[in-house]
Design goal:
With 525 residues, the protein is mostly helical. The protein has helices at 4-8, 10-31, 33-61, 94-117, 124-143, 147-165, 173-203, 208-214, 219-235, 245-251, 254-279, 285-307, 313-341, 346-381, 397-410, 417-432, 434-459, 475-493, 495-511, 513-521, and strands spanning 64-68, 88-92. It contains 20 helices and two strands. A two-stranded antiparallel sheet has the order 1-2. The longest helix is centred in the last third of the chain and has 36 residues, at 346-381.
């Protein structure tokens, strides 16, 4: 039986626990590494449990509001009412809940993996502090109903991510990648802050629902939308603003790269939340929908073509992450264009959105799994260079199995989860524009060809002389990969259950601006 206190205060607890643990971890490490591991692992287990409790409550009972700085009885009062000096509102609807599920599963698997994979490195007190701050930033971004606090959590995430990208230094190359990421993140944050200033100047509000209720889609509102789309498209790694992604993904520790995938999707969530929940009714849906579609197609094509010639396995996977982001943008972009302008195709519009949103959670699982397998290989042989690998399947059988699962999922091969979401995108996009669907299918074929080459380079052939003593990675690393692999398989075997339970409510919550406004202004759902 879950204590009512935990359920009632789960929105606060899920960010407080990792935030507090982030500052305890360095001191715990002074006592003993085992104490630090217990603090970090325990905090992440508690955070994931609380996050899943909150998500379950939202799916069962509707949108949850949680107010910091005001009494529960004042929830029905408009968010910009006077007399409350500090007021922050978390608004967790099914779309937010889906992102919470992604974060809870991924972060727990990653911390389980990290406790072994990073144990021989120095500076682990700082490492785990930044890791827990990353988790705090992601959870805050996808939960807040206040656009300024979205910016605050985005900054927490960006600073922590930059520190972790530079963690291994690697002759200064990792630091260079971190600086590139940090500079671009700062420029993007300034663009978002400028947009927030526009909203506050025009509507005297920072609450998203209140801005959505009052928005007039003036020229300034259009400028704010362009700034936010540009900044968050850059943060999620969409082409042509993707140039930080290969460096950051390839230089960060593999466990952190798996979490960076989730961080990028939190920015993607922010983009979708802005487009649908802030602008929805007054938006020129066809124009903005096609803008998102174009970003998606460019990301798919450029990502996969740049991945094929790569010799560094993590850099190759980074370009594939860009390519897969394109599927999410394509699905949701088509949904926006259809729902806003072609009522007769509403069913296909929702299917496209559901496919794009389903692909978000699928991508987090299989791409996180692939990055963890790359980290496992590096853990044993000390290189990401495909030309220096070969025959590892003889000694790292479980890692090979997990790689196969992730590779088949990303290529959209049944019965793995990537197939289910891509099929939904293919079918719905074909009804909208057959050419776009054909492009998406060709990209999947190229993805499969790329990973067949990688699989052969890493695992097949005779064992190289220098790797004859290589053995499988420790159990906790296998457990971290196993959690993600299990989700990939289960979601692929039972896609209809996942869509009906998690994805469809998220898509409809995102598309229904009126419900979002009513949930907040009217005091909750």
């Amino acid at each position: 039986m879950i204590p009512p206190f935990v359920v009632d205060n789960s929105p606060a607890l899920m960010v407080i626990v990792p935030f507090v643990a982030a500052f305890i971890a360095p001191f715990a490490g002074r006592a003993a590494p085992a104490v630090r591991a217990l603090v970090v692992g325990g905090a992440m287990a508690i955070t994931s449990a609380i996050t899943l409790i909150l998500a379950s409550d939202v799916y069962a009972h509707g949108t949850r509001l949680y107010v910091f700085g005001a009494q529960a009885a004042t929830l029905a009062v408009p968010p910009d009412s006077g007399g409350i000096p500090v007021r922050i509102m978390f608004t967790v609807d099914p779309m937010s809940a889906l992102m919470l599920v992604i974060t809870a599963i991924s972060a727990f698997a990653v911390v389980l993996y990290s406790l072994t994979s990073e144990r021989h490195h120095s500076g682990l007190g700082s490492y785990y502090t930044l890791f827990l701050l990353m988790v705090t930033g992601i959870l805050g971004m996808v939960s807040t109903g206040d656009i300024f606090n979205f910016f605050v959590f985005l900054e927490i995430l960006s600073i922590a991510s930059a520190g972790l990208i530079a963690f291994r230094i690697d002759g200064g190359v990792a630091v260079e990648a971190a600086i590139k990421y940090f500079v671009l993140s700062t420029i993007g944050a300034l663009a978002i802050l400028f947009a927030i200033g526009i909203y506050y100047g025009e509507y005297n509000a920072l609450n998203m629902a209140l801005i959505a209720q009052r928005i007039q889609f003036t020229l300034l509102d259009q400028l704010a939308l362009v700034l936010i789309i540009a900044a968050l498209a850059m943060k999620c790694g969409a082409v042509p603003m993707h140039f930080w992604t290969p460096d950051a993904y390839s230089m960060a520790p593999s466990s952190i790269t798996a979490l960076l995938v989730v961080a990028s999707q939190a920015s993607l969530y922010g983009l979708f939340r802005t487009v649908f929940s802030l602008y929805n009714i007054t938006l020129n849906a066809a124009c903005v929908g096609w803008l998102i579609i174009i970003l998606g197609v460019l990301s798919m094509v450029v990502g996969v073509t740049m991945a094929i010639p790569q010799k560094n396995v993590k850099r190759l996977m980074a370009y594939h992450a860009i390519s897969q982001t394109g599927y999410m943008l394509l699905g949701v972009g088509v949904g926006l264009a259809v729902l806003g302008n072609q009522p007769l195709l509403d069913a296909f519009g929702y299917m496209a959105m559901e496919g794009g949103i389903f692909h978000i959670i699928n991508h987090a699982m299989y791409k996180g799994l692939l990055f963890l397998t790359a980290g496992a290989i590096f853990f044993r042989i000390g290189t990401y260079d495909l030309n220096r690998m070969g025959g590892l399947g003889h000694s790292m059988k479980w890692t090979m199995v997990f790689f196969i699962i992730g590779a088949l999922a990303i290529a959209g091969i049944p019965p793995f989860n990537g197939f289910a979401s891509k099929l939904m995108i293919y079918e719905s996009v074909f009804a909208f524009n057959p050419v776009l669907s054909v492009i998406a299918m060709v990209v999947s074929i190229l993805t499969l060809a790329s990973f067949v080459k990688v699989f052969h380079s890493i695992f097949m052939g005779p064992v190289l002389p220098e790797y004859r003593d290589v053995r499988e990675v420790p159990g906790p690393m296998l457990a971290g990969m196993g959690i993600l692999a299990l989700v990939v398989i289960v979601f692929g075997l039972f896609p209809s259950v996942v869509v009906e339970t998690l994805v469809a409510p998220a898509a409809h919550a995102l598309a229904d601006q009126g419900m979002y406004i009513a949930a907040v202004i009217g005091g909750g759902a």
